[in-house]
Design a protein that fits this description.
The complex is a heterodimer of chains A (about 300) and B (about 270). By secondary structure, chain A is mainly alpha-helical. Chain A contains twelve helices and two strands; from the N terminus they run ααββαααααααααα. Chain A has two domains: about 50 residues; about 230 residues, Orthogonal Bundle (MetI-like fold). Chain A has a two-stranded antiparallel sheet. In chain A, helix 3 packs across helix 9 and helix 6 packs antiparallel against helix 9. In chain A, about 35% of the residues are buried. Chain B is of the alpha/beta class and about 270 residues long. Helix content of chain B is about 30%, strand content about 25%. Chain B has eleven helices and twelve strands. Chain B is globular and about 55 Å long. Chains A and B meet through helix 7 and helix 8 of A and helix 2, strand 8, helix 4 and helix 7 of B. The complex binds adenosine-5'-diphosphate and magnesium ion. Adenosine-5'-diphosphate binds next to helix 1 of chain B.
């Protein structure tokens, strides 16, 4: 009896270890693969030139990634700036103020929204957001905008990641012990004071983690973004200009014009950049989380 | 079970009644309090008057409704929609369940110690001055003085004075419970409520907290749910014995422990059941 129990424990442990190692190994493999394939263009042009120039003329052998990188950061930034406050307020309302019935109903709606495929968000964006920007919003600020723009991509992306952030944040707020809220309330704090000073504070690591996940997701989101961003290679001068994030570049061009020298390597470099940004970003946020934990032990 | 006649010590709030050597001045008066949770009748027609500046212990077997009663004193059931409350509860003569009564000033009058200490996710000093800050006290110097004063009062000052800025979660459980007491005292309450506040602590911390209750009862009305009869015998001035949602007997510690009127009380305090 005892022996088989211990044996199972051992097997389980080894099995899980193996699974973890395999997962990490694949991550490593992808990184190395992308790096090796983008080596030719890095060696020919130099990393600095690739990153800082924005001329993209594959037939002339000019590969500048600055506008793609900037577009990616720009679109992701706008998406997070829109999505995070909205998601925070919504999930606080649902967890702290709404009745259990609303909580249950809302949870299933959020799960549903999170499951809608990106292409649908993309279509919806081209039908509503794009014309709205081009006809109603942009004329107040710039002379002309097609609507296919940084802003459109940011908004569509925001709407896509809101359900994701909300569903994580709801878990995070639910994990704050009831006793902690009561400790605050029993001192005469109002509900809002309790939320602000205790619940949110206690949830900071969770909020950071949710944001990280949302940003990683936003960096990589391809289809919905490429449908509304305009796919135009230039440094966007305002949020009403078209842009061209890295994932859209890869998705639109991979497999075509492969006869152009260095073109494949350039697209591999784009993929490597994306991969690198996301990994680096996750590592940094992990470090930040560890620091928060060390310093505040929330 | 037979219907129990509830001993009502005092019916009107703020009236003085002489009772032996103690002059009673009720601080919390409970009248016909009934609490239902999801259609279960949890507290059945409770009537009691808790005297000022003394320790009242609520005893009774697990599940008899002690926690539910204690939490009703500062309206901690408010957020639970399954809880229905009828009857009246007066604190300083104010009917706290009357329509339109604002809840935060009632809670400010009472410090609550939970079974497990619950420090807030912030530094030691911020925990203590959390209440004062909430109620608008400003100024570093002033807040520091409040913190020092209350930490001295609970005997924690010497242990934490060099690390006031460290997270409160780095303290031991016993220290955290004293911190919670200091935090409660810092809002200058009149009443201290404790729900088995020493049950999760080691014997020494437990004794420290117990002694603190005795020290502060000159200034505060202390109401404790106690998990051990022995503790009630050591520190109670008044004792309420509850059984299955009813208040069986309420009286001075001497009355209740040495001359219990009710058969159930007799059995319970002699260890017949628990
Ligand atoms: N939130 C709640 N939901 C449902 N039942 C509850 C709740 N709180 C308490 N009760 C019930 O009320 C009764 C009294 O509980 P409690 O006041 O915690 O007893 P005690 O503190 O004396 O052990 C128990 O039967 C318990 O199951
Ligand atoms: Mg209890």
């Amino acid at each position: 009896m005892l022996k088989s129990r211990l044996l199972k424990d051992r097997i389980a442990r080894h099995y899980m270890l193996t699974a973890t190692v395999v997962a990490i190994f694949f991550l490593f493999l992808i990184g190395v693969g992308l790096f090796v394939n983008s080596l030719p263009i890095m060696q020919e042009k130099g990393l600095w030139t690739l990153l800082t120039t924005s001329n993209w003329r594959p037939f002339k052998g000019e590969f500048g990634f600055a506008s793609y990188i900037l577009s990616t950061l720009y679109v992701t930034g706008i998406a997070i700036v829109i999505a995070l406050p909205l998601s925070l307020l919504t999930s606080i309302y649902i967890i702290e103020y709404a009745s259990p019935k609303i909580l249950r109903a809302f949870s299933s709606v959020v799960d549903l929204l999170a499951g809608i495929p990106p292409v649908i968000y993309g279509v919806w964006g081209t039908l509503t957001i794009v014309p709205f920007i081009s006809e109603s919003l942009a004329p107040h600020f710039v002379e002309f905008s097609t609507g296919y723009s940084v802003l459109a991509a940011g908004v569509v992306l925001a709407i896509m990641i809101i359900p994701l952030i909300i569903s994580i944040l709801m878990e995070v707020f639910l994990a704050v012990p009831k006793e902690m809220r009561e400790a605050s309330m029993s001192l005469g704090a109002t509900k809002w004071q309790t939320v602000k000073k205790v619940v949110i504070r206690k949830s900071i690591p969770g909020i950071v983690a949710a944001t990280v996940l949302a940003i990683s997701r936003a960096f990589g989101e391809t289809l919905a973004v490429l449908m509304v961003c305009g796919n135009f290679t230039d440094l966007p001068k305002s949020i009403f200009d078209a842009c061209y994030p890295l994932p859209a570049l890869i998705a639109n061009n991979y497999g075509e014009m492969m006869s152009v020298p260095q073109y494949e390597s350039a697209l591999m470099f784009a993929a490597f950049l994306l991969f690198f940004i996301i990994v680096l970003f996750n590592v940094i946020s992990r470090v930040v989380l560890i620091q928060i934990d060390k310093r505040y032990q929330l | 079970m037979e219907l129990i006649t509830v001993p009502l010590i005092i019916e009107q709030p703020k009236s003085k009644v002489m009772n032996g050597s103690n002059s009673l001045n009720p601080h919390i008066v409970v009248e016909n309090l009934n609490i239902y949770i999801q259609d279960n009748h949890i507290l059945k027609n409770i009537n009691m008057a808790i005297p000022d500046k003394s320790i009242t212990c609520i005893i009774g077997p697990s599940g008899c409704g002690k926690t539910t009663l204690l939490r009703s004193f500062n309206r901690l059931h408010d957020d639970n929609m399954n809880v229905k409350i009828t009857g009246n509860l007066f604190v300083d003569g104010e009917d706290i369940y009357a329509k339109g009564t604002e809840v935060t000033h009632i809670r400010k009058k009472m410090g609550l110690l939970a079974q497990r200490p619950c420090s807030l996710p912030m530094s030691i000093i911020d925990n203590v001055v959390y209440g004062p800050r909430i109620h608008g006290v400003r100024g570093r110097r002033k807040l520091y003085e409040i913190a020092r004063h209350q930490l001295v009062a609970v005997g924690l000052w010497d242990e934490v004075k060099d690390r006031l800025k460290s997270p409160a979660s780095t303290l031991s459980i016993g220290q955290q419970q004293r911190l919670c007491l200091a935090r409660g005292l810092a809002v200058e309450p009149e009443i201290i409520l404790g729900d088995e506040a020493t049950s999760a602590l080691d014997p020494i911390s437990s004794k420290t907290i117990e002694e603190l209750f005795v020290t502060i009862k000159d200034k505060y009305t202390v109401v404790l749910v106690t998990h051990t009869l022995r503790q009630a015998k050591r520190i109670a001035d008044y004792v309420a014995f509850m059984y299955m949602g009813e208040l069986v007997e309420f009286g001075t510690a001497d009355q209740l422990f040495n001359h219990p009127k009710n058969q159930l009380t007799k059995e319970y305090i002699s260890g017949g059941f628990s």
